[in-house]
Amino acid sequence: MAGRVGFHSDLITDIESPADEEGVHDSFCQLIEEQSHDHHDAIEMTSLELEEESRDDVMHLESPVYLRVDSEEPQHMECLIGGRWSSDTLKVLSSMPSRTIGRSRGAIISQYYNRTLQLRRRRQSRPSIQHFPRSARPSIRGHRVETDAEEDDNKRERLVNNLQNLSANDRVRMLRAMPLSLSEKKELRMLVLNKAEHSLSQNQIPCCSQLKYYIIIAVRHGWYGWLSFLSSLQLWQTALKCVGGHFGTGVLSYFLFLRTLLFFNVFLFLVTGLFLVVPQAVVAPDPGRNTSVTSLWGLEVLTGAGYFSDSLMYYGYYSHQTLQPKHSCSKSINGTSCGLSYNMPLVYFFTIGAAFFITCIILVYTMSKSFGQSFRIDKSKGLLAIKVFSSWDYKVSKKSSVRLQRANIGTQLKELVAEVNREKLKFSVLTRLFRVFIHMLAWLMCLGSTLACVLAVFYFSEHMHKKDVETRTRTSSSDGVMLKEASLLAVPVLVSCINLILPGFFNAVAWMEEYDSPSVLNYVSISRNLLLKVSVLGVLCHHWLGRVASDPEQLGLQCWESFVGQELYRFLLMDFIFMLLDTFFGEFLWRLFSQKALKRKRKPVFDIARNVLELIYGQTLAWLGVLFSPLLPVVQIIKLLFLFYMKKVSLMMNCQASGKPWRASQMTTIFITLLCFPSFLGASVCVTYTMWTMKPSAGCGPFRGLKTMFQAGKLWVQKLAADNPNLSWLASAHSYLVENPLFLFLCAAIFLIVIYFHSQVVDGQRKIIELLQEQIENEGGDKKFLITRLQDIHERKRVVSPRGVRGASEDSSYS
Q: Which parts of 233-343 fold into alpha helices (H)?
């Protein structure tokens, strides 16, 4: 029974039920009991062997063959290894969880004791070695080597036969679970495959089976090739590895977030381009549209006015009628019949709504997935061991790739080592009070400066609004038109200056606070910059929807939606220009000044918080403007592409890695969360408010003549119900599901509840994993303590045994 369990339990680890665990455990205990009964014979044979080799080491005399320690080893070995374990200690070891939890590990130990007992039984079947003269004694070691070799061959053959009988997946799992080296596992796998091929060649396979196997292999190779091709198509993969290898995961998270924003804008562009821009571009514009605009080339690129004001760029260009291509209508006896038609107001409404809805789903899914990945329990010590022993990719062969991977692994090791060695500093009570006072003073300064900037934007936008009203009532000349167009850039320039200067003030205040952890410093900077950006965007939304949209006649605007789209275009473009200036003056010139004038080798550190909040600010403008400017995502895509390469080049030339390495384990999750709640949620509320409550312009756009944009869907449903009475249920469904805001709030509440429950589940799993890890550590300490105590007790009991063995040997020599 012992032999059966010892051999087969290692092969069916993933097939047997947990109830078979008891059989392995019982056989293991039984073998240990037999081991303790035969222990006296082992001591006798070992003493004779040591006497033959003239070794009087007591430790060697009392140690079994399988636990012998060479005399050349250091004498300060642990007591768990250096001495012979008693039978009581072995029984305790056999009942420990570590010997019963894993069937494969217990089976290996059981198989080891089976092998030892078989050798001893063979030795007992022969005459006692004491009856032979010294010259006629056989070589015990030589016999053991021969029998070991024979049994290894037999066991290898049985193992190959058992592996061959398993399926491919089970065979792989068995090979992975075996405590063998990679070369031995590879050799076993080749033996199994060769034997399988030999057996297949002997048994003729039918043609249908061969064809099936060939198809399966071809499909599998094709699938793996497709996955490899998709992985090679990842955008900026090499550049991101280079950034992560030189500057760490914190800076890498910024570029990953930029790539995520690029994908969101590509999706918006595809949706609006396919359903709005392309159909409107195919059909000729309305004949009554006024296309006589003043062209100011150079300035209109900055303002978005002039030539662009009456183009596919803005809301006012799109038709309010049902689009029909030329020659699609044909006259017949029964009348005029038209083929394809395209209801532009309805499509415009549902395209914007569907784009925001799908974006919301993608954001919620990405955020929940990121929560599950970033908040899992991964201790730095465990990650450090994994990174040291199993992080190298041996498929890398190019020198450049090898250098890049080496730099990447080195940077990650620095971050992990810094996190492991980081200790919490202990301060006195007075020092803590002083630090709290400094933090409160810093937050008061930041909040005060933010409030001052928000009030400045509010009053300056109001002043420019009144000035614009006065300017539009005057007679227009060429100089007046140019001055009026240039005045439109005043508010965007002011807001961009605030976004450029105030984050520098926040960094100076944070330097005064002296944060110990770089991650805490980044989180504080993100919160302060976020507060600034949200406050400024709130004031701007009030300016556009409260002043411009509520009374467009006062400004003389025929299409206030296009004017708001131009405003958002100007803000987006000014933000990009000021980011270029910040990169040039804040990084390039500062590096030259520091190296040439100050004679310092230090370079500026990449400001993650500031740059990330700039990305979120620009993406919020793009989401706000997609209703008023369907092609605004194209501008955002061009901006992000330029920004990636510009920031990458500036990072490599002008910046250096942080002096304190730190691992950004949750930065991407925080970025996605900020993008979802303050940014996307705010933009969705503004767009929904505009479509539900604001009155569209009467002279432009697809919703002209309607009270609200939302009314386009209602009129379409009513028309369908009037044409086809069987579809009358659509009107009631539309009134309950779309017109009623309770349904939208219910959907939003469901999304929030899903996110909340997912975060709570992840938090609960994290706490359970922490408790289990703590329990494992405590059990490990208990095992060490119990084994040490048992070994100490056994050492005390066997103090007399060396003297008894030595006396017996002396008596035999005298006789």
A: 237-272, 278-282, 299-303
**Rounded Cα gap, residues 702 and 317, in angstroms:** 8
In DSSP notation, 153-205 reads HHHHHHHHHHHHHS-HHHHHHHHHHS---HHHHHHHHHHHHHHHHHHHHHSPP
- 603 near 669, Cβ under 8 Å? no
Quick one: which of 317, 345, 351, 286 has its CA closest to 706?
345
**Is residue 574 within 8 Å of residue 489, measured between CB atoms?**
yes
348 touches 279 (CB < 8 A): no
Euclidean distance between CA atoms 318 and 321, whole angstroms: 9
Cα dist from 612 to 49, 530, 756, whole Å? 75, 10, 25
Q: Residue 771: is it exposed, middle or buried by C-beta count within 10 angstroms (0-12/13-18/19+)?
A: exposed
**Is the pLDDT reported for residue 433 higher than 80?**
yes
User: How far apart are the C-alpha atoms of 66 and 84, rounded to whole Å?
Assistant: 10
pLDDT, the chain, mean: 76
Percent helix, strand, coil in the chain, to 5, is 75, 0, 20
Closest to 107 (Cα-Cα) out of 25, 171, 166, 184:
25
Which residues have a Cβ under 8 Å from the Cβ of 488 and sit 6 or more positions away? 303, 305, 566, 567, 570
Per DSSP, the residues of 33-82 read HHHHHTHHHHHHHHHHHHHHTT---HHHHHS-GGG---TTS-TT--HHHH
Name the amino acid, one letter, at 405. Answer: Q
For residues 648 and 740, which has the higher predicted lDDT (pLDDT)? 648
Sign of the four-CA dihedral 409, 411, 415, 417: positive
- Contacts of residue 629, Cβ cutoff 8 Å, sequence gap at least 6: 313, 314, 315, 565, 566, 568, 569
320-333 burial code (b ≥16 CB/10 A, e <16): beebeeeeeeeeee
Residue with tokens 């507060």: 531
Confidence of residue 479 (pLDDT cuts 50, 70, 90): low
- Reported as a single tens digit per residue, the pLDDT across 641-684 is 999 999 999 999 989 887 777 666 678 888 998 999 889 999 99
Q: Which SS3 state, helix, strand or coil, does residue 332 take?
A: strand
Q: Are strands 329-332 and 335-338 parallel, antiparallel or unpaired?
A: antiparallel
Residues contacting residue 725 through CB under 8 Å, at least 6 positions apart:
none
Rounded-to-integer distance, Cα 607 and Cα 654, Å = 12
Identify the pLDDT of residue 26. Answer: 47
Q: Which of 361, 349, 356, 360 is nearest to 692 (CA)?
A: 349
Hey, what are 101's tokens?
């939890």
pLDDT over 70 for what percent of the chain? 71
In this structure, the number of other CB atoms found within 10 A of the CB of residue 593 comes to 11
Q: Say what angle helices 608-625 and 682-693 make with each other, to 10 degrees.
A: 20
**668: buried, middle or exposed (CB in 10 Å: 19+, 13-18, 0-12)?**
buried
